[in-house]
Amino acid sequence: MRLVYGLQPVREAIRAHGNRVDWVLVQQDGGPKLDALARYAGDQGIKVQRGPRGDLDRRAAGGRHQGALAGVPDLPLVGVETLPLHDPRAPGEASVLMALDGVMDPQNFGAVLRSAVALGAAAVIWPEHSSAPLSPATFRASAGAVEHATLCRVPSLPDALRVLESRGVTAIALDAQGSVELGELPLSGPVVIVVGAEDKGVRRPVRQACQHVARLPMSGTIGSLNASVAGALALYEVLRQRQQAKRSSQQTDPAQPAP
Questions:
Q1: Alpha carbon separation from 137 to 36, 65, 105, 108, 110 (Å, rounded)
Q2: What does DSSP say about strands 96-101 and 123-127: parallel, antiparallel, or unpaired?
Q3: 122 CB burial (10 A radius; 0-12, 13-18, 19+)
Q4: Is residue 127 part of a domain?
Q5: pLDDT at residue number 210
Q6: Each residue of 139-163: pLDDT tens digit?
Q7: Confidence at residue 252, expressed as pLDDT on a 0 to 100 scale
Q8: pLDDT-based confidence at 221, cuts 50/70/90?
Q9: What's the rounded Cα separation, in Å, for the pair 241 and 140?
């Protein structure tokens, strides 16, 4: 069981796990949003408690809880060998995966998780070491999106990328000095986008395990982006390219529906 706090994270945890949520604690006299959350939890058969703000402050250990805490089932982790290569939500479409290298900030980690879920990444991969932990701060930064993500924590990111390569997945590291723009690469097959920390970028052993090192087009005076922004832009480019290819295919398909 793990602790989740914040209005939206608690709401998403209830939406994802239903009555498997062990308990919900809301601040007494917290206002209509907290009252609505308490009713929603109660409707799912979850035990709802109310308490003074001081109790929530102590249990959240200083976290920004917005008057809502919950005891939620632990997140399941999957192995890299079992990651889906085709999107179950879109039959026939290859998966896009996201991998993080050295992202230590829980806010960045959570924001990447949110972007990954919103933009259709099939899973998020990160190493056991040199990474932010899955913590209440990460859950809150993801605005609850972590509850809907497929998560894969690996002992070695280079080894994981080599396993994915053997399964037909193309690994693309993002780097401001990349030899090619991301949009110039074919992105229709299974791909994993590898994002590093803003200050250090993708480490050399990880880059060497990738098939491409690509850059995002930038015309401003800032030469780098944080992990969450870079990851979101990369996922958007994959989505844009695939949707464009789908539209082109539909326009050139000679088969027309019967009138």
A1: 23, 10, 10, 10, 8
A2: parallel
A3: buried
A4: yes
A5: 98
A6: 999 999 999 999 999 999 999 999 9
A7: 67
A8: low
A9: 31
Residues 10 and 67 in one domain: yes
* pLDDT score for 254: 56
161 and 226 in a single domain? The answer is yes
Looking at the structure, do residues 116 and 37 belong to the same domain, yes or no? no
Task: Kindly state whether residues 60 and 86 are assigned to the same domain.
Answer: no
The residue whose two tokens read 């070695």 is 156
> How does DSSP assign 70-82, residue by residue?
EEEPPPPB--GGG
- What is the pLDDT, as a whole number, of residue 223? 64
| Domain interval for residue 87 | 80-247
CA 151, CA 148: separation in Å to the nearest integer?
Answer: 9
Contact call for residues 195 and 99 (beta carbons, < 8 A): yes
Asked if residue 115 and residue 16 are part of one domain, the reply reads no
First to last CA, the chain: 57
Mean pLDDT of the chain: 92
* pLDDT for residue 220 is more than 80: no
Q: Which helix (H) or strand (E) holds 56?
A: helix 53-60
pLDDT at 253: 61
